[in-house]
Design a protein that fits this description.
5 helices, Diverse_Substrate_AcTransf, Acyl_CoA_acyltransferase, 5 strands, globular, alpha+beta, transferase, 158 residues
């Protein structure tokens, strides 16, 4: 029903659509400032900083899901694969595409000799939490996420 393959530059318009669909689901559509041009440079330029897989519906050849990942370094654990987002379009959820994407991403973790895989999930996203619990994932509620936007950093350093 679905085929999982490595993402290609030509997939980026659909990838950005799915990112925006996720942002809407997470009640933050106004937060998406990424562009296809930025994704081209960041994923396919001279120093790619992320990779992705796509789930293609075999009957229509439509991209219905994505898994976007990058690498991070843990001072305690070494090289880790970070799953930034896994998205399956709403009409295709529950038919196995998410599992195939997650499994392929875990395989990438092992192929690249990472010490493990990490990701975040919103505390109210029960379907996702239940999905990850099926894998026996450690859902750590202890850490607090922190961030600063570039304009905020500029103001602080000025």
């Amino acid at each position: 029903m679905y085929k999982i393959r490595k993402g290609e530059k030509e997939d980026l318009p659909r990838v950005l659509e799915l990112i925006k669909e996720l942002a809407l689901y997470e009640k933050a559509p106004e937060q998406v400032s990424n562009t296809i041009e930025m994704m081209e440079v960041d994923g396919f330029g001279p120093n790619p900083i992320y990779g992705f897989f796509v789930a293609v519906k075999e009957a229509t050849q439509e991209i219905i899901g994505i898994s976007i990942y990058y690498y991070r370094y843990s001072t305690w654990k070494g090289k880790r694969l970070y799953l930034e987002d896994i998205v399956v379009t709403e009409s295709e959820r529950g038919f196995g595409a998410g599992k195939l994407l997650f499994d392929r991403t875990m395989m990438k973790c092992l192929e690249d000799k990472c010490s493990g895989m990490m990701w975040q999930v919103l505390d109210w996203n029960e379907p996702a939490i239940n999905f990850y619990k099926k894998y026996g994932a450690d859902l750590d509620g202890e850490w607090i996420n922190c961030n600063l936007q570039a304009d905020e950093i500029q103001a602080l350093l000025s």
